[in-house]
Please model this.
Amino acid sequence: MLKLLGKASSINVRKVLWTSHELGLTLEREDWGSGFRSTQEPEFLALNPNGLVPVLIDGARVLWESNTICRYLAGREGRRDLLPQEPGARAAVEMWMDWQATDLNGAWRYVFMSRVRGHADYQDAASLAAAEREWNRLMGLLDAHLAQHGPYAAGAAFTLADVVLGLSLNRWLMTPFERPEYAGLAAYQQRLLQRPGYVQHGANGLP
Ligand SMILES: N[C@@H](CCC(=O)N[C@@H](CS)C(=O)NCC(=O)O)C(=O)O
Model:
């Protein structure tokens, strides 16, 4: 049995839940992370020294980093539609997954901590405005890409890139701040909403 450690409200845990849904896999999930069991407990740190969720346990194998876990599960199940084997096609998927985990993920932090978490350390008006501009700029880049090369991130077919970008799109839509009207992203959201995995684990009311 595959075991997933991490609270279901975490965007990174939800990537794994949605991927598992696409793969038809059942996971045994335990609540870890803020509000639940602390990831600073020695038992958890022995599995992931970063003290972050998600962690996947598959027998003797222990994995952390949400995008890596999604790739592992797709590969484990032989789902080349979600993660192609041909190097060029695979790179097109991984490029957007890496962009999500690095550039995009870093860009929303200030806005999210300020406007959703209400954290006292993230209340500087100028920093907030700059972060909002940057987050919107990056989402505009995705919007333009989808318009030119869509309908999905890696082209014609739904892949793992759409799982991680779909959750990011949901976060952007659910965070209360001023967003430009991006027609491509609105259409992408509607397309993703046709997938039960996104409805259940992505667009489920959580930012
Ligand atoms: N790069 C990591 C980031 C994981 C991460 O930031 N997890 C957050 C929740 S979204 C966490 O564990 N926070 C600490 C906590 O909730 O105790 C990944 O993609 O898996």
Notes: The two ends are 29 Å apart (CA to CA). The mean pLDDT is 98. The pocket of glutathione is lined by residues 10-12, 33-34, 39, 52-54, 65-66, 101 (CB under 6 Å). The longest strand covers residues 2-5.
